[in-house]
Amino acid sequence: MSHWMEHRKPEPGQIALISLLAAWTLAWKGVSLWHAAKDDSKPWFVVLLLSNTMGLLDALYIFRVSRTRRLAVEDTRRDDDYPQQTHSIED
Length: 91
Hints:
Helices cover about 65% and strands about 0% of the residues. The relative contact order is 0.10. Helix 1 (about 10-40) packs antiparallel against helix 2 and helix 1 (about 10-40) runs parallel beside helix 3 (about 55-65). The chain contains 4 helices and no strands. It has a domain at about 25-80. The protein is mostly helical.
């Protein structure tokens, strides 16, 4: 009869899966926290720091909420509307 407190050694596949999920989560969390800090959004920073959603909430913040990303996309669109000046006008 096995005791419920007995521990067995994890399989290599389990270790690999946990390591992959940890790396995935850490990458998303790092980028989302960087965006929240850059946006000076303290509430989002705390929520992202304390939550563990395997990167889902972090990705949502980066692509939908982050002001810096939105501004960068708007600047890119605005730059595309105006042709680049290729020569200067002499007085």
